[in-house]
Amino acid sequence: MTLTVVEVAGLVTVQDAGRPGYAHLGVPRAGWLDEPAALLANRLVGNDASAAVLEVTLGTLSLRADSPVWVAITGAPCTVSIDGQAVAFSEAARVPAGAVLRLGAPPSGVRTYAAAAGGFAVDPVLGSRSTDTLAWVGPPVVAPGQTLPLGEAAGELHPLDTPRPPTPAALRLLPGPRADWFAGDPVALLVGAKWSVGAASNRVGLRLEGPALRRAPAYDGRELASEGMVLGAVQVPPSGQPVVFLADHPVTGGYPVAAVVHPDDLWMCAQLRPGETVRFSRV
Amino acid sequence: MSPALSVRPFGAAAALVEVADAASALALSLWLRERIAAVDIVPAASTVLIDGCTAADVHAVVGHWTGESDTVTGRLVEIPVVYDGPDLPSLAGRLDLSVAGLVAQHTAIEHVVAFCGFAPGFGYLQGSPWDVPRLASPRARVEPGSVGLAGTWTGVYPSASPGGWQLIGRTDVALWDPTRESPALLAPGTRVRFRAVDRLEGER
């Protein structure tokens, strides 16, 4: 069972839950950025939660099936067609042998997920099939002409499933380890301002633009020895413009962490477009 | 618990423990591996990140640490090095050593990987007696296998990357090979000895 990549625009990678547990070796966790969307896609086609899916970033994708396969497309909503015939988004659809599944570009959101029954069975590295775009651990980026193997479809289809989590009004913040480095309570400063998503945002981090977070006088110009970083850490470089660390974040960082985004709100960071507004709230 | 320790909450399910130095961070991280259920335990220059448990849990366990390490005898790895790095002569001069003297000292030391980072397979090796400044302008490309010094650290570049460490030699040992069962040759606690060779395998 394979799917052949006919056309790709934008970054398309294979992702599963990632490879946490290797940070002490310098290996980023990687993994799907919008976890609820990826898990929903897997459930719709009867996959185990650990099955690998494709993550399409602000792009398009066409895949040809060599034999009939059930697929489901979730995440950033886009047009989905099979041999030119429109099919529903976020529902299981059957792609006949030889037919081409096509995902259009999403008019809103950033990342669309494509699950296929059996999961994308590329060779795992350190227990995960995820492509890490910082250190390039895992399979290569999905490219035209590539043949993607599928695993054995085992589970039952779930034609209807639970909806996505509601979009949070504001991303909830937990305290970070270096609040004392900032002039004032950094969570209050983050909550009190309106932030805009920066164009350089990627799988490593969501870059935010707004009023600079200033250092406390005692820490002005001081260097922080690199220390371990977590998913959702809001790191503040000397520019004062925060970066929310996403799945491909470096395992250590040398700038103080002002706060941490609540794990349940991280999926939203995967779907915020450059220029969109972000607000924070305190847990 | 040593008075230098402080436990800082890092979000909902992680904590950062501050220790005196990299050696303490390594010792604590190895000690914790046997005693706490965490997703990641990441030593660094003067901290240990424990990801996957609450600060309260970390506090309760770390409170029993008296500063000892019960796994100081990590695996010993020997790395053959051709000491012909571009920065070797100037660095030896700066340290008031002959090139041969620097090589003799560097190969006599048993280094220990204090922590990893920067890239998969890159270890910060402790043991050198020198404090070496980084290059004023980093190289745009450092070849994989390059052996460099910076600060009190020795490091071996696992893959080609920009770099500001002073390069003293090169090896053909694969620091990172994703096809191996253990892709990283070096992990925190691994002991390393460098062996001076005239040429690497496959060179004539």
UniProtKB/TrEMBL annotation, chain A:
Gene3D superfamilies: Cyclophilin-like (2.40.100.10). Keywords: ATP-binding, Hydrolase, Nucleotide-binding, Transferase. One of its GO terms (molecular function) is transferase activity. Signal peptide: none annotated. The keyword Glycoprotein does not apply. The keyword Transmembrane does not apply. InterPro entries: CT_A_B (IPR003778), Cyclophilin-like_dom_sf (IPR029000), PxpC (IPR052708). Residues 24-283 form the Carboxyltransferase domain. NCBIfam families: urea_amlyse_rel (TIGR00724). This is Biotin-dependent carboxyltransferase. The lineage of its organism: Bacteria, Bacillati, Actinomycetota, Actinomycetes, Propionibacteriales.
From TrEMBL, chain B:
Residues 5-186 form the Carboxyltransferase domain. InterPro entries: CT_C_D (IPR003833), Cyclophilin-like_dom_sf (IPR029000), PxpB (IPR010016). Keywords: ATP-binding, Hydrolase, Nucleotide-binding, Transferase. Pfam families: CT_C_D (PF02682). The keyword Hydrolase applies. Transmembrane segments: none annotated. The keyword Transferase applies. Gene3D superfamilies: 3.30.1360.40, Cyclophilin-like (2.40.100.10). GO terms for molecular function: ATP binding; hydrolase activity; transferase activity. PANTHER family: 5-OXOPROLINASE SUBUNIT B. This is Carboxyltransferase domain-containing protein.
